[in-house]
Amino acid sequence: MKIERGIFIHYKELVKPISLRQYDAAIARLVHYPEKREEMIIERGKLAAGYRGQLAFDYYLRLIQNESCYVLHNIRLRLNDAFFQMDTLLLTNRFLLIIEVKNVIGDLIFDFEFQQLIKDRESTREIYNCPIQQVMNQHQKLQHWLRLNKMVNIPIYSIVVLTNPKCFIKEVKGDRNFIKSKLMRSSRFNIFFVGLTNSVSNEVLMDRETNQLAKRFVQYHTPQILNIYERHDISQQTISHGVICHDCQYFFTLYSPNSTCPTCSRPQKSLIHQNVSDYSLLVSPTFTNVEIRNFLNVPSRYTMKRLLKSSPQVKYSSSTYHHPLHD
Q1: Which end of the chain has the smaller Cβ count within 10 Å, N or C?
Q2: So where are the chain's domains?
Q3: Is the dihedral of CA 148, 154, 159, 164 positive or negative?
């Protein structure tokens, strides 16, 4: 969890989500099942659109002029027997702000009465859950979570930010003033944030306490790891084994620790890191030499051992290797 100090503090930075990386690994290795592969490509596209929206919005977050503001991306917390996730959570010494980021294109109808978002594009209509209702649910769950964990009682606000300039808000059904207070384009966010900061004058936390609260959120964060096989009704055996070059999609047998891709000459270090990461994403982040060797079709246990030793991301303990998944 990197901390970047500047005008504000990026306490939990935005990185490519584990779920998106899982789809990248699975799609590359699902070479003999075109229908399932196409199904995964569609699902990956939805996740990638969300991630691109967050990347676009991150530009506006970096314009925040508040040195006591902490930015946490993709925080996922357990509440009772379930989890809830927030795209972005801002912490200041006066309030918390939950931001639901939406990257959609087309003509939009916000139907708050029936809690749905209708998107019309190129003669196609799609129905989604209402993002305003989603962020309100996150708001309630965060309040409950703070109470259960005996944390500070601090004001919480929540908004939905539209990041794609090509979306057109065609119609709003429901309380227009309420929806307007909850919904905005990313270009308006900084004006909104300054106004909110000025309107909430009471400082609930000292700087040290704000820092401690940010640490607690990161401490309780649980990354989401998909069961991609169950989700798409496939077995682990459908995934092709072997070393794959993710630059040119070529499968080959790796005989030497110094091997490069025979097709595009991609260096060994990046090859082994990506392929070990594939195993962590698709099978398990913990493995033995035999297990990873069988997955990658590496003939020599000594070659595999040297390759794993050369990867700084891989930890070794009692004949077991661990390649942790972080988001």
Answers
A1: N
A2: 4-220, 241-322
A3: negative
